[in-house]
Specification:
223 residues, alpha/beta, 8 strands, binds S-adenosylmethionine
């Protein structure tokens, strides 16, 4: 059991935590492997809209948003094991049955496992900026991944992005411009769960706000 983030309390992902062993085996191609993630929920809860958060960290956005909107299903993906356990444990303890936390690389899950036109929204908040030039290629937001997000969004579905990092935001704007045939770019709109004076209300936002950093956000609506 992981104790590191929990100050000695044991963390138990339980039903809220999934990892790659819960996914079907990989086929010859992504098209063979993709499936409808709504099958994770009982049949009576599958016709709800479903949204994805990439890089959920400690799961604060999911906990806040899914508590306010119990008729929306949420999938969070987090590849750092300790954060995934922490987030899944929070979701299980609060009995937020409309959320599942996946421990995996989001690019793999989206590209290989997610059926077309699945999500109403995709949330990407404070993704790692990889500031060194030679690491820029590791950034989550890139034109080819935006095209993949376009595929998994339902018609008129939205990607929502916030970062504190000026250079990463310029990079995002550049890659968004390369996808102008796929999306209409708009200003960021705060989610229902953001508290007064917050943009989204994630852990990183709260930490960076104390440091006085400015935030940049945008939305992309699927054409
Ligand atoms: C800077 S943190 C932000 C966490 C949270 N969104 C917040 O605002 O507090 C970025 C998170 O994304 C996760 N992450 C980065 N790349 C990822 C990937 N390819 N797949 C899944 N998670 C990823 C990291 O492990 C980290 O927890």
């Amino acid at each position: 059991m992981s104790l590191s983030l929990s100050h000695g309390k044991p963390l138990e992902p339980g039903w809220a935590g999934l990892n790659l062993s819960d996914f079907p085996p990989l086929g010859q191609s992504p098209a063979e492997t993709r499936f409808d993630l709504r099958t994770w929920w009982p049949e009576t809860e599958r016709d709800r809209p479903i949204e994805l958060e990439i890089g959920s960290g400690k799961g604060t956005f999911l906990v806040q948003q899914a508590s306010q909107l119990p008729d929306v299903n949420y999938v969070g993906i987090e590849y750092a094991h300790a954060f995934w356990r922490y987030a899944a444990d929070r979701i299980r303890r609060r009995n937020l049955t409309n959320v599942r936390m996946v421990h995996a690389d989001a690019k793999t899950i989206v590209t290989w496992y997610c059926a077309d036109e699945l999500f109403r929204q995709v949330h990407v908040y404070f993704a790692d900026p990889w500031p060194k030039k030679r690491h820029n290629k590791r950034r989550m937001i890139q034109a080819d991944f935006l095209a993949e997000l376009h595929r998994v969004l339902e018609p008129e579905g939205m990607v929502r992005i916030v970062t504190d990092h000026d250079d990463y935001f310029a990079w995002i704007e550049d890659h968004v411009a390369q996808c102008s045939h796929l999306f209409d770019r708009g200003d960021f709109e705060r989610p229902a769960s953001a508290a007064e004076g917050e943009v989204v209300g994630t852990n990183f936002e709260r930490k960076y706000r104390r440091e006085g950093r400015p935030f940049h956000g945008l939305t992309l609506r699927k054409r």
